[in-house]
Automatic annotation (TrEMBL):
One Pfam family, short name: PcrB
GO cellular component, one term: cytoplasm
NCBIfam families according to UniProt: GGGP-family (TIGR01768), GGGPS_Halobact (TIGR04147), PRK04169.1-3 (NF003199)
Taxonomic lineage: Archaea, Methanobacteriati, Methanobacteriota, Stenosarchaea group, Halobacteria
Species this chain originates from: Halopiger xanaduensis (strain DSM 18323 / JCM 14033 / SH-6)
Molecular-function annotations in GO: heptaprenylglyceryl phosphate synthase activity; magnesium ion binding; phosphoglycerol geranylgeranyltransferase activity
Name the UniProt record assigns to this protein: Geranylgeranylglyceryl phosphate synthase
Transmembrane stretches, start-end: none
């Protein structure tokens, strides 16, 4: 069976800790033409704010995924199509590679494996919360990023490799190198996409672009432009 993300071009990532622009609803965001909504964030995430956003998006007809940042915010909701579980390949602490995961499996013995997949993150922006939180080594050359992508795909069988520049636009050469290194895995790119051109520049290499802050800062029209760019690229 083909993974759903094999057919995606665009994901809208909604951070439950961030507000929406005035007048914008979760329904509006779900109707932007994005291929999937991923609900997740790094700081200020609680079970309550996660559950609220998931419930709001569940009323709309778009694939809905949770990306929990820790085991205690995992929401059990039948409306979710699945859980995308980050593992940070360049984390400084093994806690973010397998440690948090071990605790989750230990505490939740009824894990829904049918709906659970992992994302092999390579975190690239040292200024981002996710980088400080996971003590990621972001000082990587293109060939190192490509090698991480190959390790994820070939050695660890990861279906998703996620090049994460959260908050800043990535280096095209590095995204291209990651793209060339991945064959069977789906390459997600996220970070700093703010208009048609920035979306297009990353989507020409990545299989799927992830748009986050733009939805919280600019709203619907800006997000739609990135959806168009992702399908044009
Ligand atoms: C964050 O990759 C996503 O996890 C998107 O990044 O918020 O910079 O768009 P931005």
């Amino acid at each position: 069976m083909t993974a759903p993300w094999a057919d995606w071009d665009h994901i809208l990532k909604i951070d439950p800790d961030k507000d929406l622009p005035d007048g914008v609803t979760y329904g509006d965001l779900c109707a932007t033409g994005t291929d999937a909504i991923e609900v997740g964030g790094t700081m200020g995430i609680t079970e309550e704010n996660m559950a609220d956003v998931i419930a709001a998006c569940a009323e709309h007809d778009v694939p809905l995924y949770q990306e929990p940042s820790s085991p205690d915010v995992v929401i059990e909701d039948d409306a979710l199509d699945g859980y995308l579980i980050p593992t940070v390949f360049n984390a400084g602490s093994p806690f973010w590679i397998t440690g948090a995961h071990k605790e989750w499996v230990r505490l939740d013995r009824d894990l829904d494996w049918e709906r659970t997949s992992t994302e092999a993150y390579i975190v690239m922006n040292p200024e981002a919360d996710v980088a400080t939180y996971t003590e990621a080594d972001c000082d990587l050359e293109a060939d190192e990023v490509a090698a991480y992508a190959t390790v994820a795909e070939r050695m660890f069988g990861q279906e998703i490799v996620y090049l994460e520049y959260s908050g800043t636009l990535g280096d095209e050469e590095i995204v291209e190198a990651a793209s060339e290194a991945t064959d069977e895995s789906t390459l997600f790119y996220g970070g700093g996409i703010h208009d048609y051109d920035s979306a297009y520049s990353m989507a020409q290499y990545a299989d799927v672009i992830v748009v986050g802050d733009l939805a919280h800062e600019e709203g619907i029209d800006a997000v739609r432009e990135t959806v168009d760019a992702a399908s044009d690229a």
